[in-house]
Amino acid sequence: MSATPRVASLPKGTFSDEAARYFFRDRDVQHVYHKLISDVFRATEHGDSDWSVIPIENTIDGSVSLHTDWLVHEVDLPIRAEWVYPAVQNLVGLRGELSGESGDWHPDNITKVLSHPVAMAQCYEFLRATLPHAELETLSSTSEAIRTVSENPGKGWAAIGTRTAAAEYGLDVLQESVTDHDNNYTRFLLVGNREYENPKATTHKTSILITLPDDYPGALHQVLSAFAWRRINLSKIESRPTKKKLGVYYFFIDILMSMDSVLLPAAIAEIEAIGCQVRVLGSYPSLPYVE
Ligand SMILES: O=C(O)C(=O)C[C@]1(C(=O)O)C=C[C@@H](O)C=C1
Predict the structure, then answer these.
(1) What is the CA(197)–ligand 1 centre distance, in A?
(2) Nearest to residue 64, comparing CAs of 234, 231, 186?
């Protein structure tokens, strides 16, 4: 009998944990938690887990560059699936401690707000308008922030994070949905050496990394035209430093097509023929959001 597959993510009650549960809904997997995202990556790189769940992009804060760089420079793990999740951030704390006589929490009673830096960035307007006097502290995840608040009663601390973590650590949701924009979506990747299939997927994507040849005028233009004349749709193109030399970049490109199609391998062959290096980071299903 084969062992239960393992999936690594940030701790219980984080958005990453919620995404991991979505990827493996109705499936028998063991969820393994790590405090740091670097350990989430390493768990699968070292073979202790079969997959890792990584937040890669957010509608408000943009790409999580650190995580993109890890995928490219630190580990060699194929992308197996993606899921875009409407993350709802909540202000969480002990209502009793933060309330006045009316029984409602009062902003003046909150001295400090803790959260993950990306979650904090999604709520800056709310924090500036409602809690301008509160100190802000960033931690390794939203659930770590909620746990820290639960372990420090009486100090006027609150956190930003999930409803699940608030329940897990016995805190109250003081205010629901404190994100500055309604369309706060986070894109999560499932990466790992083990195959993953999901019949619910509606679209397939391929992510590639392109390094342009030195001193080749118009190289990026030629790369883009290899996709354009085949009418291949791109959903993202981003340049990141190669970390080797100042001013030298690679291009991270997401394509709305599977590598199984005839067109995409032909476009990649054409791009390689002009001297570009192409690394396929994964060809994978994109899962729809279903409650
Ligand atoms: O701390 C968490 O809950 C995470 O899963 C991390 C993370 C991120 O790194 O982007 C994921 C999504 C949220 O929007 C904020 C934080």
Answers:
(1) 24
(2) 186
Q: Is 89 in the pocket of ligand 1 (CB under 6 A)?
A: no
Question: CA-based angle 82:84:88, to the nearest 5?
Answer: 145
The pick from 10, 85, 177 for probing ligand 1's pocket by mutation, whose C-beta has the most ligand atoms within 8 angstroms, reads 10
Strands 6-9 and 30-33: parallel
C-beta 52 within 6 A of ligand 1: no
What separation in angstroms does the CA of 86 have from each of 9, 136, 145, 171, 275? 18, 24, 20, 22, 40
Mean pLDDT of the chain: 93
pTM: 0.92
**Residue 240 has what pLDDT?**
87
CA-to-CA distance for 24 and 27, rounded, in angstroms?
5
pLDDT of residue 245: 80
Nearest to 232 by CA among 194, 205, 198, 201: 205
Q: Give me the interface pTM, i.e. the ipTM.
A: 0.95
Q: Which CATH number fits domain 204-284: 3.40.50.1370, 3.20.20.390, 3.10.450.50, 3.30.70.260?
A: 3.30.70.260
Burial 163-180 (b: 16+ CB within 10 A, else e): ebbbebbebbbbbeebbb
Cα 125 to the chain's mean position, in Å? 22
pLDDT in tens, 204-220: 999 999 998 877 788 89
